[in-house]
Design a protein that fits this description.
The protein is an alpha/beta fold and 295 residues long. It is 29% helix and 11% strand. Helix 9 links the parallel strand 9 and strand 10.
Length: 295
Amino acid sequence: METKTYGTLIEAPELAQHLDDPNLVIVDCRWDIARPEWGDAAYAESHIPGAVFASMDRDLADPVGPETGRHPLPNVRRFAETLGKWGIDAHTQVVAYDQNTAAAASRLWWLLRWLGHSAVAVLNGGFAAWQSASLPVSTLKALREPRVFAARVRPELLVSAVDVEAISDAGSQGRDSAELVVDARAADRFAGRNETIDPVAGHIPGARNHPFARNLDASGKFRAAAELRQLWQETLNAGQRPARPDAVVSMCGSGVTACHNLLALELAGLNGARLYAGSWSEWIKDPARAVEKGT
């Protein structure tokens, strides 16, 4: 992979051509919120040759705290050490994959970019696409030569709950706000119906809904860039005041599928959006924060 850097997506046949590249690290991010141990079991059963496994709860998030969401961002020093143990340094091309939706893989994609590593891509269609192409699999646990990962944190990619409160309050008081909160959860959860994960249903007042599943086609792959751009322009222009892409604050239930929307925006050429990592599960920890229901 010396001649090309992958920064958004890579297709399964193209990845298969580079499995022997010493500067390539493939990370299996398979995860199921309802079955926390499923990813470990799926990796043990079969994975892309050479891939290391990343646990959402152990590696891609810190433990839940009294004021945090369900998947707090990992501690920078600890996560940098983990990346180094996986064989990742400044010269490494990283490819993340999950089963098919890219929801968990996008989390690792964003985390690496947050820490200043741009050579990271998501396998389009995930492990399902790899299997559909009849590409080789392995049951062997990958052992990588450790490297030193030097984190270069990019704080400009994040917003805090305080920032989001200011955005929401401005809208509630009829004041203009350049920022727009976009929620990646399914439409029913956004509306406050069928909430089976968090103890409070609804959404942040003033937020718009763009379910991350809208970014995908029927096969679980990302839609073409032009189609993504059209769909996102509909979301950005849905209110009384159109929003710029760099004014978007992406959120979801816990800061995971919000990264999927950030990747989709990047693919669409709509750059500059930021992440509210705590998302809904952090927002509702403070009962003083406003909650809205309905579409």
